Structures are given as structure tokens and as C-alpha cells.
Amino acid sequence: MVPLAATLAGALLLGAIVLALRPRGGGEGMLLLAERMEALSDRLDAAVAAQNERLGRALAENADRTQDSARRIHERLAVIDAARRNIEALGGQVTTLAAILGNKQARGAFGEVQLRDMLADRLPAEGWAWQHTLENGTRCDALIRLPFPPGPIAVDSKFPLEGWQALRRAPDDAARAAAERRLAADIRKHVEDVARKYICPGETAEGALIFLPSEALHADLHALFGTLVAEAARRGVYLVSPGTLWAVLGAMRALMRDVRLKAEAQQLRREVARLAEETERLDRRVANLKRHFAEMQVDVQQIEITAQRITAAGARIEAVEMDPAPPARAAE
Which residues form a coiled coil (predicted)? Predict the structure, then answer.
């Protein structure tokens, strides 16, 4: 708009200069100058109006785009703020979990809670017991009530994690070797304790489970101490992680279901046998009733025959004519 105005102003100025340089001869020059100035003014007004209209449309479009961009930025800021809150909450949970795993008693309670939740989710209420005391006086964390064979299986959830944590934090090879020796000793001792306390011939199965609350711990033990894990299995002690215990509990639940179905089938067979006995008894009683009914029919027939004979005898008695009495003698 500014170049157009400058052009029109220059044209007006040029026209005024030309008219001023002409000889002064009358009002025709002034009139012509006024007409041209008026025409140029109209053109300038029209150009300014058109330019203002275009500028207004451009400003409106820019304002709409700015508002749309601001709205999208606000939405993205809201998403970022929600993500920030989630990250802060997750950080707090991680801190809490680290505090739990750093405390031995809290870590044991965490493993017990995890084990109990899995048992309650996968097995029926009558299929397991919590904090069960065995006949030798030992209290196991859980007892899975499987039928013989194999029998009830005791579960322990208090595996020592200090050696494993030291192994994960070992700064050099020497510290790592010392941590591996400590962890191997912890594994061997814990397996011996579980085998001695939780495997009771005649009361439990010939094996017990050690629940490891971490998949990473389970993987490290099998990768670094495979010999000890195999030795524990030979003694009937099996190390299970949450994933493997989940699968084992699924198999145990299927076994419990099969046992329950067999028990229900046996109960059904007993009920069918009782029903057959009752059916035979009913047949005998119906046969007796038929015999009594037949005898009753014979008795009724005999009664009818006797009644007919009595009726006939009565008729004969009525038909008998008695002789008339002799006349009395006349008085002499």
C-alpha cells in the first residue's frame, strides 16, 4: 500500500508542477488540475480500501492459524504435563520398590504378598493353605494341597537376595568372584534348610518349591549356578520364578480339577448304585403287591361264591311250605 500511495502522491506533485510552469491563462488549468487530483484521490481511496480489505483478510487468516497453533500447543502441553505426572508417580513407585527391596523384612513381605496373590488367583480356596504348620513344627509360607501322589507341596518365599545384589553391584572381577562365592553358599544352605524342613515323608510330596520374586534372579541362578540348581532338583527342591510358578499352578489346578471330577464321578456311581438297589427293592415290593392283589382277588371270588350260596339258601328257605297246625278237639 505504501508504494502505491507514494506513486499517486508523486503523480499529483508532478501534475501540480506542470500546471505551475504553464503560463497563467485562466481557470482551465486549475480546473483540469482539480479534476485530475480528484480522480487520483478516488483511485488512491479505492486502492487503500482494497489494500485494507486484503490486509484484514490476511490478518484474520493469520489470527485463525495462530489460534489453531495455540490450541494444538496447549493440547500437547497438556499431554506433556500428564506424562510428567506419570513419570513422577512412576519415580515414586520405583523409589518405594527400591526401599522395599533394600529392607530384608519388607522384601520378604513383598515376596509373600506376591506369592499369596498368585495362589489366590490360580487355585481354589480349598486347594492351598497359608502359613501352614507341618507335623515337625515347621511353618511353611504356603502348602498346596495336592492329592497323593504326589501329595501336598510346601512353598518357601524367603530366598536371601543379599549375595545376588552384591553380585549385580560388583565393581570389578575380584568383588564379583567374592559375590559369586557368597551367593553359591547362600543357595546351598537355603536348599538344605528347605529340604530338611519342608519335605516330610508321608505328609508332603517328595519335593518343595522355593519362590523367587524376580525373573532376573531366576535367570542369573540358572545361568551362573546351573550345577547348584540341578543339585537342588535332585534333592527335590525346585526354584521357580513368578512366570514358571504361574505355569506350575496352572498344571496343579488342572490336576485338582481332574481329582475333583473323579471324586464326583465316584460319588455319582455310588448314587447310581443306590438308585439301582432302590429300583430292585421297588420291583420286589411291586411283585409282592401283585401277589397280594391276586390273592385278594381269589378271596373276593370265594366271598362272592359264599354270598351267592347264602342267597340261594335264603331263597330255598323262603320257598319251603310248612304243614298247617292240626285242629283243636272239641270240648267234651
Answer: 258-292
According to DSSP, the β-strands at 153-156 and 208-211 are: parallel
- Give me 80's grid cell: 506433556
How big is the CA angle at 43 (ends 41 and 44), to the nearest 5 degrees?
Answer: 60
Q: Are 241 and 217 in contact (CB under 8 A)?
A: yes
Q: Residue 197 in contact with residue 97, Cβ under 8 Å? A: no
Strands (E) in the chain, as ranges, are 128-133, 139-144, 153-156, 208-211, 237-240
DSSP letter at 26 equals: -
Name residues whose C-beta falls within 8 Å of residue 24's C-beta, 6 or more positions apart in sequence.
none
**Vertex 99 angle, CA 98 and 102, to 5°:** 85
- Angle between helical axes of 104-122 and 242-319 (0-180°, round to 10): 40
Predicted pLDDT of residue 26: 47
Is residue 319 over pLDDT 50? yes
- Cα–Cα–Cα angle for 204, 210, 213, nearest 5°? 145
* Reported pTM: 0.51
Q: Rounded distance, CA 148 to CA 202, Å?
A: 9
Half-sphere exposure of residue 35, counting CA atoms within 13 Å on the CB side?
Answer: 6
Domains contained in the chain, CATH given: 108-257 (3.40.1350)
Report the distance separating Cα 197 and Cα 210, nearest Å.
Answer: 12
| C-alpha angle 202-203-206 in degrees, rounded to nearest 5 | 75
The sign one gets for the Cα dihedral 215, 220, 226, 230 is: negative
Cell of 160: 536371601
Average pLDDT over residues 77-102: 67
Tell me the C-alpha distance between 128 and 235, whole Å: 23
Structural contact between residues 157 and 115, judged by C-beta atoms closer than 8 angstroms = yes
Who has greater pLDDT, 189 or 109? Answer: 189
d(CA 198, CA 136): 9
